[in-house]
Design a protein that fits this description.
Layout (H helix, E strand, L loop, with lengths): L1 E5 L9 E4 L9 E11 L1 H7 L13 E2 L3 E9 L11 E5 L11 E5 L3 E3 L6 H5 L2 H14 L8 E5 L4 H12 L3 E6 L4 H7 L3 E4 L5 H4 L3 E6 L4 H4 L5 E9 L6 H7 L2 E4 L7 H12 L7 E6 L3 H9 L6 E5 L9
Helix pairs in contact: 3-4
The structure holds NADP nicotinamide-adenine-dinucleotide phosphate (NAP).
InterPro entries: ADH-like_N, ER, GroES-like_sf, NAD(P)-bd_dom_sf, YIM1/Zinc_Alcohol_DH_Fams
GO molecular function, one term: oxidoreductase activity
Pfam family, one: ADH_zinc_N_2
Length: 318
């Protein structure tokens, strides 16, 4: 099969499209023919070697976590899927392998692709959807109607999902973005969009029930005082300071890494099925242009998601 590999850590020009062996599947696993692969910041962080102390990856390495495609083979004991099923899922950071024609999945890490989403749209969802879901709905304990929710960085992959998720729960949603993304976020449902380049958000926001930080650093430092007593400061990028939070009597939650979870993805699928969420794919690249897709993601100013398209139509032969 064809795969986009790297032989060593480095810049985006490390990518090479090569023939590699087809993954062999075992108990409980299925082989998925990848139609589209989502691009996430963690992909280029891995490519640059930032995760090598946590995950000593072997080379050649196939990067890529977000996948949508069709099941072409099922291993012994597989109960949920059969050949021909359209699926999507998150290959966790220990596994990766998404930038390839075929990838194997444990069946429990997959969900059925919602009919209302194309393969490209479905590939944009797993990482950002599961990250936002896990930090806000699981660790953060959920969102209640009327909650004031502030999402740092609403225009990005996680932010654009989180804004819609909070809005679908009838929260009052405040977010930050630069000038070119103000209208986009209003259209996604945000009640207030603050241009963080023009205004110091910490002087115009107060008393939020839930704050989700997708930026970190200075943005996180200036966030603590905005959360009301008993409220929640949630982060997917940096562990909040517990002492600072304790003094303010606010709760903190941090997820260093998203969990792969097919059941949760099925719950997210329902939001797409019932039109509560819409996918935000702003850039589609042919598979061969993975390097260009990474360079774009590295700017940290893309809107919504970037997706690599492998095949436009189904089905492929193995
Ligand atoms: N812990 C986990 O499990 C987990 C999971 C997923 C992602 N993450 C991490 O979360 C971060 C966000 O991920 P992502 O996929 O959403 O990234 P992304 O799509 O690359 O985010 C890009 C967005 O960030 C916005 N942005 C940049 N600087 C900003 C600032 N100072 N204030 C407000 N917005 C700003 C940009 O908006 P403008 O162009 O309008 O500035 C742009 O739309 C990344 O660091 C990623 O690695 C962690």
């Amino acid at each position: 099969m064809k795969a986009m590999i790297i032989e060593q850590y480095g810049e985006a020009d490390q990518f090479r499209l090569e023939d590699v062996p087809l993954p062999s599947i075992h108990d409980g696993e299925v082989l998925v023919n990848v139609y589209a692969a989502g691009v996430n910041p963690v992909d280029w962080k891995i490519r640059e070697g930032h995760l090598q102390r946590i995950y000593p990856y072997a080379f050649p390495l196939i990067i890529g976590c977000d996948v949508a495609g069709v099941v072409v083979k099922v291993g012994p004991g597989v109960k949920k899927y059969k050949v021909g099923d359209a699926v999507y899922g998150f290959k966790n950071l220990a596994q990766l392998g998404g930038y390839a024609e075929f990838v194997k999945f444990n069946e429990n890490d997959l969900a059925r692709k919602p009919d209302s989403l194309s393969f490209v749209e479905a590939a944009s969802v797993p990482v950002v959807g599961l990250a936002a879901w896990q930090i806000m709905m699981v660790h953060g304990g959920g969102i209640k109607p009327g909650d004031r929710v502030f999402i740092q960085g609403g225009a990005g992959g996680v932010g654009s999902f989180a804004v819609q998720l909070a809005k679908s729960m009838d929260a009052y949603v405040i977010t930050t973005a630069s000038k070119q993304n103000q209208t986009f976020l209003k259209e996604l449902g945000a009640d207030e969009v603050i241009d963080y380049r023009e205004h110091d958000f910490s002087t115009v926001i107060s008393s939020v029930d839930i704050l989700l930080d997708t930026i970190g650093g200075d943005a996180l430092d200036r966030s603590y005082d905005l959360v009301k007593k008993g409220g929640k400061l949630l982060s997917i990028v940096e562990r909040p300071n517990k002492d600072k939070a304790a003094k303010l009597q606010i709760h903190t939650h941090f997820i260093p890494e998203t969990e792969s979870n097919g059941k949760m993805l099925e719950e997210i699928s329902l939001f797409y099925k019932y039109g509560k969420l819409k996918p935000v794919v702003e850039h589609i690249f042919p598979f061969a242009q993975a390097a260009e897709a990474h360079r774009l993601s590295e700017t940290k100013h893309t809107r919504g998601k970037i997706v690599l398209e492998l095949f436009q139509t189904s089905p492929l032969s193995t």
